[in-house]
Amino acid sequence: MSAAGWALDVACRLVAIGVFVGAVEQWSVREQFQPGGVLFTPAHRMSRVRALVSGRHTLAVLVLAQLTTALVVLASGVETVLGWAALCVLTIAFVALRWFRRSGGDGAEQMASIVLISTVLVAPAFPGDARLALGVGFIAAQSVLAYSTSGIAKLVSPVWRDGTGLAGILSTIDHGTPALGQWLVRHPTLSKLASWGTIAFECAFVLVLVLPPPLAAGMLLAGLAFHAACAALMGLNSFLWAFPATYPCVWVAAGFVRGLASG
Amino acid sequence: MTLPDGALLGALTIVFTLWLLASIPNQFRWEWWDNTARRDVLALLPRWTFFAPRPGRHDLHILIRDWSAGSPGQWRELERRPPAPWLRAFWNPDRFVRKTVTDTGNALIRAAARPEAGSSTSIQLHAAYLEILGWVVAAPPPVQDTSPGDARQFVLVRTQTARPGRRLDVAFISFEHPRL
Protein backbone atom coordinates (compact mmCIF):
# COMPACT_ATOMS: atom_id res chain seq x y z
CA MET A 1 0.00 0.00 0.00
CA SER A 2 1.44 3.41 -0.99
CA ALA A 3 1.57 6.28 1.51
CA ALA A 4 -1.11 8.14 -0.46
CA GLY A 5 -3.30 5.02 -0.59
CA TRP A 6 -2.90 4.55 3.16
CA ALA A 7 -3.82 8.21 3.83
CA LEU A 8 -6.99 8.02 1.72
CA ASP A 9 -7.94 4.70 3.28
CA VAL A 10 -7.66 6.00 6.86
CA ALA A 11 -9.37 9.27 5.92
CA CYS A 12 -12.37 7.47 4.43
CA ARG A 13 -12.70 5.05 7.35
CA LEU A 14 -12.76 7.98 9.81
CA VAL A 15 -15.28 9.87 7.68
CA ALA A 16 -17.37 6.69 7.44
CA ILE A 17 -17.65 6.60 11.25
CA GLY A 18 -18.85 10.21 11.27
CA VAL A 19 -21.31 9.58 8.43
CA PHE A 20 -22.66 6.51 10.23
CA VAL A 21 -23.28 8.51 13.43
CA GLY A 22 -24.83 11.38 11.44
CA ALA A 23 -27.17 9.01 9.59
CA VAL A 24 -28.40 7.45 12.85
CA GLU A 25 -28.80 10.94 14.36
CA GLN A 26 -30.96 12.07 11.43
CA TRP A 27 -33.06 8.91 11.62
CA SER A 28 -33.60 9.58 15.33
CA VAL A 29 -35.21 12.96 14.46
CA ARG A 30 -37.10 11.63 11.43
CA GLU A 31 -40.33 13.28 12.60
CA GLN A 32 -38.65 16.61 11.76
CA PHE A 33 -38.56 15.55 8.10
CA GLN A 34 -42.36 15.17 8.10
CA PRO A 35 -44.79 18.02 7.18
CA GLY A 36 -44.59 20.70 9.89
CA GLY A 37 -41.12 19.52 10.94
CA VAL A 38 -38.15 21.84 10.93
CA LEU A 39 -36.25 19.76 8.34
CA PHE A 40 -39.24 19.28 6.02
CA THR A 41 -39.18 20.97 2.63
CA PRO A 42 -42.65 21.89 1.32
CA ALA A 43 -43.30 20.82 -2.26
CA HIS A 44 -43.66 24.42 -3.46
CA ARG A 45 -40.09 25.13 -2.32
CA MET A 46 -38.58 22.15 -4.09
CA SER A 47 -36.97 22.15 -7.47
CA ARG A 48 -38.60 19.89 -10.05
CA VAL A 49 -35.78 17.35 -9.71
CA ARG A 50 -36.01 17.22 -5.92
CA ALA A 51 -39.78 16.88 -6.03
CA LEU A 52 -39.29 13.92 -8.35
CA VAL A 53 -36.97 12.01 -6.00
CA SER A 54 -38.58 13.05 -2.71
CA GLY A 55 -41.02 10.54 -1.38
CA ARG A 56 -42.18 9.02 1.88
CA HIS A 57 -39.23 6.65 1.99
CA THR A 58 -36.46 8.91 0.70
CA LEU A 59 -34.98 9.48 4.16
CA ALA A 60 -35.11 5.79 5.05
CA VAL A 61 -33.45 4.77 1.77
CA LEU A 62 -30.65 7.33 2.07
CA VAL A 63 -30.01 6.55 5.75
CA LEU A 64 -29.99 2.80 5.10
CA ALA A 65 -27.63 3.25 2.14
CA GLN A 66 -25.27 5.30 4.31
CA LEU A 67 -25.32 2.84 7.20
CA THR A 68 -24.63 -0.26 5.12
CA THR A 69 -21.96 1.27 2.89
CA ALA A 70 -20.23 2.98 5.82
CA LEU A 71 -19.89 -0.44 7.44
CA VAL A 72 -18.44 -1.92 4.24
CA VAL A 73 -15.93 0.94 3.97
CA LEU A 74 -14.98 0.49 7.62
CA ALA A 75 -14.50 -3.23 7.17
CA SER A 76 -12.73 -3.38 3.83
CA GLY A 77 -11.20 0.08 3.33
CA VAL A 78 -11.25 1.81 -0.05
CA GLU A 79 -8.37 0.06 -1.82
CA THR A 80 -10.47 -2.91 -2.83
CA VAL A 81 -13.01 -2.79 -5.64
CA LEU A 82 -15.78 -3.68 -3.16
CA GLY A 83 -14.69 -0.96 -0.74
CA TRP A 84 -14.41 1.66 -3.47
CA ALA A 85 -17.82 0.68 -4.91
CA ALA A 86 -19.29 1.02 -1.41
CA LEU A 87 -17.59 4.40 -1.11
CA CYS A 88 -19.23 5.53 -4.36
CA VAL A 89 -22.69 4.62 -3.03
CA LEU A 90 -21.89 6.15 0.37
CA THR A 91 -20.83 9.40 -1.29
CA ILE A 92 -23.94 9.59 -3.47
CA ALA A 93 -26.22 8.88 -0.48
CA PHE A 94 -24.39 11.39 1.71
CA VAL A 95 -24.49 14.22 -0.84
CA ALA A 96 -28.11 13.36 -1.71
CA LEU A 97 -29.24 13.50 1.92
CA ARG A 98 -27.60 16.91 2.40
CA TRP A 99 -29.36 18.11 -0.75
CA PHE A 100 -32.67 16.54 0.29
CA ARG A 101 -32.45 18.07 3.79
CA ARG A 102 -31.54 21.53 2.40
CA SER A 103 -30.65 23.07 5.79
CA GLY A 104 -28.96 22.26 9.07
CA GLY A 105 -25.58 21.44 7.52
CA ASP A 106 -22.21 22.29 9.00
CA GLY A 107 -18.51 22.50 8.16
CA ALA A 108 -17.94 18.89 9.16
CA GLU A 109 -20.35 17.77 6.43
CA GLN A 110 -18.49 19.97 3.96
CA MET A 111 -15.15 18.41 4.88
CA ALA A 112 -16.66 14.91 4.79
CA SER A 113 -18.01 15.64 1.27
CA ILE A 114 -14.56 16.80 0.16
CA VAL A 115 -12.85 13.65 1.48
CA LEU A 116 -15.50 11.31 0.04
CA ILE A 117 -15.84 12.90 -3.40
CA SER A 118 -12.13 13.33 -3.98
CA THR A 119 -11.42 9.73 -2.95
CA VAL A 120 -14.16 8.46 -5.25
CA LEU A 121 -12.65 10.47 -8.10
CA VAL A 122 -9.08 9.20 -7.63
CA ALA A 123 -10.30 5.59 -7.27
CA PRO A 124 -7.73 4.04 -4.89
CA ALA A 125 -8.87 0.54 -5.86
CA PHE A 126 -7.04 0.91 -9.17
CA PRO A 127 -3.28 1.39 -9.72
CA GLY A 128 -2.04 4.96 -10.18
CA ASP A 129 0.13 6.57 -7.53
CA ALA A 130 0.08 10.01 -9.16
CA ARG A 131 -3.71 10.04 -9.08
CA LEU A 132 -3.80 9.13 -5.41
CA ALA A 133 -1.18 11.77 -4.61
CA LEU A 134 -3.38 14.33 -6.32
CA GLY A 135 -6.33 13.39 -4.08
CA VAL A 136 -4.17 13.50 -0.97
CA GLY A 137 -2.79 16.91 -1.97
CA PHE A 138 -6.28 18.28 -2.56
CA ILE A 139 -7.64 17.08 0.79
CA ALA A 140 -4.55 18.41 2.60
CA ALA A 141 -4.90 21.76 0.84
CA GLN A 142 -8.57 22.03 1.88
CA SER A 143 -7.64 21.13 5.46
CA VAL A 144 -4.92 23.80 5.61
CA LEU A 145 -7.27 26.31 3.97
CA ALA A 146 -9.92 25.50 6.59
CA TYR A 147 -7.69 26.09 9.61
CA SER A 148 -6.00 29.16 8.08
CA THR A 149 -9.30 30.79 7.12
CA SER A 150 -10.78 30.09 10.51
CA GLY A 151 -7.70 31.47 12.28
CA ILE A 152 -7.47 34.63 10.19
CA ALA A 153 -11.22 35.30 10.51
CA LYS A 154 -10.78 35.16 14.30
CA LEU A 155 -7.61 37.24 14.22
CA VAL A 156 -9.39 40.15 12.51
CA SER A 157 -12.33 39.93 14.94
CA PRO A 158 -12.19 42.31 17.93
CA VAL A 159 -14.39 40.02 20.05
CA TRP A 160 -12.07 37.09 19.44
CA ARG A 161 -8.97 39.14 20.21
CA ASP A 162 -10.35 40.42 23.54
CA GLY A 163 -11.72 37.01 24.57
CA THR A 164 -15.37 38.08 24.91
CA GLY A 165 -16.33 36.15 21.77
CA LEU A 166 -15.18 32.81 23.14
CA ALA A 167 -16.79 33.40 26.53
CA GLY A 168 -20.00 34.40 24.72
CA ILE A 169 -20.11 31.31 22.50
CA LEU A 170 -19.42 28.98 25.42
CA SER A 171 -22.21 30.67 27.41
CA THR A 172 -24.83 29.48 24.93
CA ILE A 173 -26.78 26.25 25.19
CA ASP A 174 -26.49 25.42 21.49
CA HIS A 175 -22.72 25.74 21.11
CA GLY A 176 -21.38 25.93 24.60
CA THR A 177 -21.26 24.79 28.15
CA PRO A 178 -23.00 27.68 29.92
CA ALA A 179 -21.33 27.11 33.29
CA LEU A 180 -17.87 27.23 31.68
CA GLY A 181 -18.84 30.23 29.55
CA GLN A 182 -19.98 32.19 32.59
CA TRP A 183 -16.82 31.19 34.43
CA LEU A 184 -14.80 32.62 31.53
CA VAL A 185 -16.88 35.82 31.68
CA ARG A 186 -15.71 36.17 35.29
CA HIS A 187 -12.10 35.38 34.30
CA PRO A 188 -11.51 37.53 31.19
CA THR A 189 -7.74 37.00 31.20
CA LEU A 190 -8.18 33.25 30.86
CA SER A 191 -10.81 33.74 28.16
CA LYS A 192 -8.40 35.98 26.25
CA LEU A 193 -5.63 33.41 26.67
CA ALA A 194 -7.86 30.58 25.36
CA SER A 195 -8.97 32.80 22.44
CA TRP A 196 -5.41 33.59 21.44
CA GLY A 197 -4.47 29.94 21.84
CA THR A 198 -7.20 29.01 19.34
CA ILE A 199 -6.17 31.78 16.94
CA ALA A 200 -2.48 30.83 17.18
CA PHE A 201 -3.16 27.13 16.63
CA GLU A 202 -5.42 27.70 13.62
CA CYS A 203 -3.16 30.29 11.98
CA ALA A 204 -0.04 28.16 12.57
CA PHE A 205 -1.61 24.93 11.26
CA VAL A 206 -0.16 25.54 7.78
CA LEU A 207 3.33 25.11 9.28
CA VAL A 208 2.57 21.41 9.70
CA LEU A 209 3.61 21.08 6.04
CA VAL A 210 7.18 22.26 6.71
CA LEU A 211 7.88 21.38 10.35
CA PRO A 212 10.16 18.44 11.20
CA PRO A 213 8.10 15.24 11.66
CA PRO A 214 8.08 15.23 15.51
CA LEU A 215 6.77 18.82 15.62
CA ALA A 216 4.29 18.15 12.81
CA ALA A 217 2.99 15.12 14.73
CA GLY A 218 2.68 17.31 17.84
CA MET A 219 0.66 19.83 15.83
CA LEU A 220 -1.72 17.11 14.61
CA LEU A 221 -2.11 15.74 18.13
CA ALA A 222 -2.93 19.27 19.29
CA GLY A 223 -5.54 19.39 16.52
CA LEU A 224 -7.06 16.14 17.73
CA ALA A 225 -7.23 17.50 21.29
CA PHE A 226 -8.78 20.72 19.95
CA HIS A 227 -11.58 18.82 18.19
CA ALA A 228 -12.14 16.58 21.20
CA ALA A 229 -12.56 19.71 23.35
CA CYS A 230 -14.93 21.26 20.77
CA ALA A 231 -16.99 18.05 20.76
CA ALA A 232 -17.19 17.86 24.55
CA LEU A 233 -17.72 21.57 25.29
CA MET A 234 -19.58 22.76 22.18
CA GLY A 235 -21.39 19.65 20.95
CA LEU A 236 -19.47 19.69 17.64
CA ASN A 237 -19.36 15.89 17.53
CA SER A 238 -19.28 15.61 13.75
CA PHE A 239 -16.08 17.68 13.54
CA LEU A 240 -14.32 15.10 15.73
CA TRP A 241 -14.40 12.67 12.77
CA ALA A 242 -14.36 14.89 9.69
CA PHE A 243 -11.37 17.10 10.45
CA PRO A 244 -8.95 14.57 11.98
CA ALA A 245 -9.85 12.40 8.96
CA THR A 246 -7.82 14.82 6.85
CA TYR A 247 -4.71 14.47 9.05
CA PRO A 248 -3.30 11.35 7.33
CA CYS A 249 -3.46 13.29 4.04
CA VAL A 250 -1.85 16.34 5.68
CA TRP A 251 0.87 14.06 7.09
CA VAL A 252 1.62 12.48 3.71
CA ALA A 253 1.46 15.86 1.92
CA ALA A 254 3.94 17.23 4.47
CA GLY A 255 6.26 14.36 3.49
CA PHE A 256 5.97 15.43 -0.17
CA VAL A 257 6.73 19.04 0.75
CA ARG A 258 9.75 18.08 2.90
CA GLY A 259 10.96 15.82 0.08
CA LEU A 260 10.71 18.70 -2.40
CA ALA A 261 12.47 21.07 -0.01
CA SER A 262 15.36 18.67 0.52
CA GLY A 263 15.65 18.07 -3.22
CA MET B 1 -7.32 -3.44 -14.36
CA THR B 2 -5.77 -0.09 -15.30
CA LEU B 3 -7.55 3.16 -15.96
CA PRO B 4 -6.21 5.44 -18.76
CA ASP B 5 -4.09 7.38 -16.31
CA GLY B 6 -2.78 10.20 -18.54
CA ALA B 7 -6.12 11.67 -19.57
CA LEU B 8 -7.69 10.91 -16.19
CA LEU B 9 -4.85 12.56 -14.32
CA GLY B 10 -5.17 15.67 -16.46
CA ALA B 11 -8.93 15.83 -15.93
CA LEU B 12 -8.58 15.32 -12.18
CA THR B 13 -5.89 18.01 -11.97
CA ILE B 14 -8.28 20.46 -13.62
CA VAL B 15 -11.21 19.46 -11.36
CA PHE B 16 -9.24 19.70 -8.11
CA THR B 17 -7.54 22.96 -9.13
CA LEU B 18 -10.85 24.60 -10.04
CA TRP B 19 -12.51 23.27 -6.85
CA LEU B 20 -9.69 24.64 -4.67
CA LEU B 21 -9.57 27.98 -6.50
CA ALA B 22 -13.36 28.36 -6.19
CA SER B 23 -13.13 27.57 -2.47
CA ILE B 24 -10.94 30.62 -1.83
CA PRO B 25 -13.37 33.45 -2.73
CA ASN B 26 -16.07 31.48 -0.92
CA GLN B 27 -14.35 32.38 2.37
CA PHE B 28 -15.32 36.03 1.86
CA ARG B 29 -18.73 37.62 1.76
CA TRP B 30 -18.39 39.16 -1.69
CA GLU B 31 -21.69 39.85 -3.34
CA TRP B 32 -20.39 39.14 -6.85
CA TRP B 33 -19.17 35.74 -5.71
CA ASP B 34 -22.23 34.90 -3.62
CA ASN B 35 -24.38 35.25 -6.74
CA THR B 36 -22.16 32.69 -8.48
CA ALA B 37 -21.89 30.37 -5.47
CA ARG B 38 -25.69 30.26 -5.16
CA ARG B 39 -25.64 27.84 -8.10
CA ASP B 40 -23.67 25.36 -5.98
CA VAL B 41 -26.79 23.33 -5.18
CA LEU B 42 -24.82 20.41 -3.75
CA ALA B 43 -22.96 22.70 -1.32
CA LEU B 44 -19.57 21.55 -2.57
CA LEU B 45 -17.91 24.92 -1.98
CA PRO B 46 -16.93 25.11 1.67
CA ARG B 47 -16.98 28.12 3.97
CA TRP B 48 -14.43 27.68 6.72
CA THR B 49 -14.80 30.81 8.86
CA PHE B 50 -16.38 28.95 11.86
CA PHE B 51 -17.73 31.30 14.55
CA ALA B 52 -15.84 34.27 13.11
CA PRO B 53 -15.53 37.15 12.65
CA ARG B 54 -18.88 37.75 14.41
CA PRO B 55 -19.62 34.66 16.50
CA GLY B 56 -23.17 33.86 17.56
CA ARG B 57 -23.25 34.56 21.28
CA HIS B 58 -26.95 33.92 21.80
CA ASP B 59 -29.39 31.07 21.66
CA LEU B 60 -32.43 31.70 19.54
CA HIS B 61 -35.77 30.43 20.82
CA ILE B 62 -39.15 30.32 19.13
CA LEU B 63 -41.99 30.95 21.57
CA ILE B 64 -45.60 30.52 20.58
CA ARG B 65 -48.96 31.35 22.11
CA ASP B 66 -52.56 30.72 21.17
CA TRP B 67 -55.32 33.33 21.20
CA SER B 68 -58.82 32.31 22.26
CA ALA B 69 -61.80 34.73 22.04
CA GLY B 70 -59.43 37.71 21.90
CA SER B 71 -57.39 36.66 24.93
CA PRO B 72 -53.79 35.50 24.67
CA GLY B 73 -52.63 32.28 26.28
CA GLN B 74 -49.27 31.60 27.89
CA TRP B 75 -46.06 31.72 25.86
CA ARG B 76 -44.38 28.36 25.49
CA GLU B 77 -41.27 27.29 23.66
CA LEU B 78 -41.40 25.32 20.45
CA GLU B 79 -40.02 21.96 21.42
CA ARG B 80 -36.25 21.61 21.73
CA ARG B 81 -34.45 18.51 22.91
CA PRO B 82 -30.81 19.21 23.61
CA PRO B 83 -28.97 15.98 24.46
CA ALA B 84 -27.37 15.42 27.84
CA PRO B 85 -24.13 17.46 28.06
CA TRP B 86 -22.02 14.36 28.70
CA LEU B 87 -23.40 12.69 25.58
CA ARG B 88 -22.98 15.56 23.15
CA ALA B 89 -19.38 14.74 22.26
CA PHE B 90 -20.60 11.63 20.43
CA TRP B 91 -24.34 12.01 19.94
CA ASN B 92 -26.05 15.28 19.06
CA PRO B 93 -29.05 14.78 16.75
CA ASP B 94 -30.55 18.10 17.84
CA ARG B 95 -27.81 19.95 15.93
CA PHE B 96 -29.60 19.67 12.58
CA VAL B 97 -32.80 21.17 13.99
CA ARG B 98 -31.05 23.88 16.03
CA LYS B 99 -28.92 24.98 13.08
CA THR B 100 -32.00 25.28 10.86
CA VAL B 101 -33.96 27.17 13.53
CA THR B 102 -31.06 29.56 14.18
CA ASP B 103 -30.29 30.21 10.50
CA THR B 104 -33.95 30.74 9.58
CA GLY B 105 -34.65 32.87 12.67
CA ASN B 106 -31.62 35.06 12.05
CA ALA B 107 -32.61 35.46 8.39
CA LEU B 108 -36.02 36.72 9.51
CA ILE B 109 -34.53 39.10 12.11
CA ARG B 110 -32.13 40.52 9.48
CA ALA B 111 -34.96 40.94 6.96
CA ALA B 112 -37.16 42.71 9.52
CA ALA B 113 -34.32 45.08 10.44
CA ARG B 114 -33.86 46.30 6.87
CA PRO B 115 -35.07 49.89 6.42
CA GLU B 116 -37.45 48.91 3.64
CA ALA B 117 -39.21 46.44 5.97
CA GLY B 118 -40.52 49.36 8.10
CA SER B 119 -43.92 48.65 9.59
CA SER B 120 -45.06 46.94 6.43
CA THR B 121 -46.93 43.70 6.69
CA SER B 122 -44.96 42.41 3.71
CA ILE B 123 -42.53 40.69 6.08
CA GLN B 124 -45.21 37.97 6.30
CA LEU B 125 -44.31 37.02 2.75
CA HIS B 126 -40.62 36.57 3.53
CA ALA B 127 -39.47 32.97 3.03
CA ALA B 128 -38.09 32.73 6.59
CA TYR B 129 -41.36 34.03 8.07
CA LEU B 130 -43.40 31.51 6.12
CA GLU B 131 -41.05 28.69 7.06
CA ILE B 132 -41.22 29.46 10.79
CA LEU B 133 -44.98 29.97 10.56
CA GLY B 134 -45.23 26.46 9.08
CA TRP B 135 -43.48 24.98 12.14
CA VAL B 136 -45.52 27.12 14.53
CA VAL B 137 -48.88 26.22 13.02
CA ALA B 138 -47.99 22.51 13.06
CA ALA B 139 -47.04 22.54 16.76
CA PRO B 140 -49.62 20.75 18.93
CA PRO B 141 -51.62 22.81 21.43
CA PRO B 142 -50.48 22.75 25.07
CA VAL B 143 -51.45 19.52 26.82
CA GLN B 144 -53.62 21.30 29.43
CA ASP B 145 -55.67 23.13 26.74
CA THR B 146 -58.78 21.44 25.48
CA SER B 147 -59.37 24.15 22.88
CA PRO B 148 -56.70 24.72 20.24
CA GLY B 149 -57.41 28.49 20.14
CA ASP B 150 -58.53 30.78 17.32
CA ALA B 151 -55.16 32.16 16.34
CA ARG B 152 -51.47 31.60 16.93
CA GLN B 153 -48.54 34.00 17.25
CA PHE B 154 -44.79 33.56 17.63
CA VAL B 155 -41.83 35.54 18.90
CA LEU B 156 -38.12 35.06 18.38
CA VAL B 157 -36.24 35.48 21.64
CA ARG B 158 -32.50 35.62 22.17
CA THR B 159 -30.89 34.47 25.39
CA GLN B 160 -27.40 34.09 26.66
CA THR B 161 -26.55 31.52 29.32
CA ALA B 162 -28.90 28.90 30.74
CA ARG B 163 -29.46 30.62 34.12
CA PRO B 164 -33.08 30.78 35.32
CA GLY B 165 -32.95 34.58 35.76
CA ARG B 166 -31.40 35.20 32.36
CA ARG B 167 -32.30 38.18 30.25
CA LEU B 168 -34.68 37.60 27.34
CA ASP B 169 -34.29 39.82 24.26
CA VAL B 170 -37.33 39.80 22.04
CA ALA B 171 -35.94 40.05 18.52
CA PHE B 172 -39.13 39.66 16.48
CA ILE B 173 -42.89 39.50 17.10
CA SER B 174 -45.12 37.94 14.50
CA PHE B 175 -48.64 38.82 13.51
CA GLU B 176 -51.51 36.72 14.86
CA HIS B 177 -52.49 34.06 12.40
CA PRO B 178 -56.01 32.61 12.46
CA ARG B 179 -56.06 28.83 12.78
CA LEU B 180 -57.82 27.10 9.97
From TrEMBL, chain A:
Record key words, sorted: Membrane, Transmembrane, Transmembrane helix
All copies of domain HTTM-like, residue ranges: 2-251
Keyword Membrane tagged: yes
Superkingdom of source: Bacteria
Transmembrane domains' residue ranges: 55-75, 81-100, 107-126
Bilayer topology annotation: Multi-pass membrane protein
Subcellular location: Endomembrane system
SMART domains for the chain: HTTM
GO cellular component entries: endomembrane system
Claim: Manganese is one of the keywords in the record: no
InterPro entries: HTTM-like
Protein name in UniProt: HTTM-like domain-containing protein
From TrEMBL, chain B:
Domain of life of the source: Bacteria
Keyword line: Membrane, Transmembrane, Transmembrane helix
Residue ranges of the TM segments: 6-24
Record bears the keyword Transmembrane: yes
Name of the protein in question: Uncharacterized protein
Organism: Mycetocola miduiensis
